[in-house]
Amino acid sequence: MGTVLKGGYVVELEPASVERVDLRIEGERIVARGEDLTPGPDDEVVALSGKLVFPGLVNAHHRLAQVLARGWVRPTPASYQALLEQVRWPFENALDLDAVQVAATAAGLESIQCGTTTLFDLHSSPRAVTGSLLRLARGLHEVGVRGVLAYAVTDRMGAVGREEGLEETVSFARKARGRFRGQVGAGPCFTLSDDALQGLGEALNTSGTGLHFPLAEDPLDERLSTERHGNPPVTRLLNGNLLSPRAMAAHAGHLEWADLAQVLATGTWLVHTPRSNQGQEVGYAPALKFGARASLGTDGTSSDLFAEAQAAYLRSREAGQPIDVLRYLANGHRLASQVFEAAIGPMREGSVADLLVLDYLSPTPLTAETLAWHVIHGLGSRHVEAVMVDGVWRVWARRPLSVNPSVVADQAREAATAVWERLNQT
User: Fold this and answer.
1) Can you tell me the distance from the alpha carbon of 33 to that of 52, in angstroms, rounded to the nearest whole number?
2) Confidence bin at 425 (pLDDT 50/70/90)
3) Among residues 311, 394, 305, which one has the least CA distance to residue 356?
4) Alpha helices in 75-156 (DSSP H)
5) Would you give the DSSP letter of residue 419?
6) What pLDDT does 75 receive?
7) Among the residues of 146-256, which ranges form H helices?
8) Which 3 state secondary structure label does DSSP give 4?
9) All domains of the chain, ordered by start, with CATH?
10) Within 13 A of 172's CA, how many CA atoms are on the CB side?
């Protein structure tokens, strides 16, 4: 028994194509593509009547727990260092395991309703480390989204906290299965001692995965890394053999060209987070220079990747360095395909059936040549009508099928209130 999507316009991002064809899905895979496919006797037929069948989006750098900070009346930091010390780190310290799981469900639900089917999350909850990635996975599992999870190892809570973080990130990477995978995570380089870098290298060898970390979000990363540890971040990461085609660096907004070139030469993925950079007032990352392995992430902002793609293009245009937004989105699929060792993104036979149905009535011709402009100026999360992950419908008629949004929101508000109370006591 399969599912046949009939009469839709099937979209692919790179090379761009828009074609009116049918898809047949069996199990978790697309098994046939063609004009006017004949359904089998037991197949479910979904008549799309000209709606778009779009690849599920990939958010390459998220901070799921930050959904509980939305609206928190917080100090106004005077610098990036103050932002970390007065806002971001105290919030992470206030998280407990229950809050972590509730946040994953709430942010995962928001993500899938906005068309994201795969999330890469870099998590930190220093007072609730052990089991935190499993709780994230449980929260995401409720929604049905695909997740790649890492714990951000750091020395800022001392050697014991560092070792606890290493154990958590390696332990999850070893046992993650199905829709979940693990990575080794790290905090900013200036929070990592030489012992921590050595531990990260050992963790990468043990887990067989790559490193997910923030890099040069602000000039503070290079200044403090050099002052405290004798070398700038890129030099230390290269000396530790931590950069590779499996590694992912988020932000990368403040690297000299020589350093950026060295990072690119290792094949490391670069994840552009324009709305977060604007919100944190850390400046514009030169995304046009990020090379062939650049993608998009939302960091701690809202989980709307369509909005992120639009912001990324418009901000790059303003900077006089316009990026190819379709390539950035398609690279998310390449990254997910690499991690899950399966074709994710192409709407072709053999690919994993992670896809969206978009109810988008185009006011102008929608073709391969015009697709990018529709993504930048027209398409949005408001058009997401149905979402399939691994061949299973997770959203139908704009309604999540496995969770009650009102219950999720109630639980998130309760968890946020508890976290905010702990923040106010510090």
Assistant:
1) 15
2) confident
3) 394
4) 80-83, 89-93, 97-113, 132-143
5) H
6) 78
7) 158-175, 194-207, 220-229, 233-239
8) strand
9) 2-55+347-398 (2.30.40.10), 57-339 (3.20.20.140)
10) 30
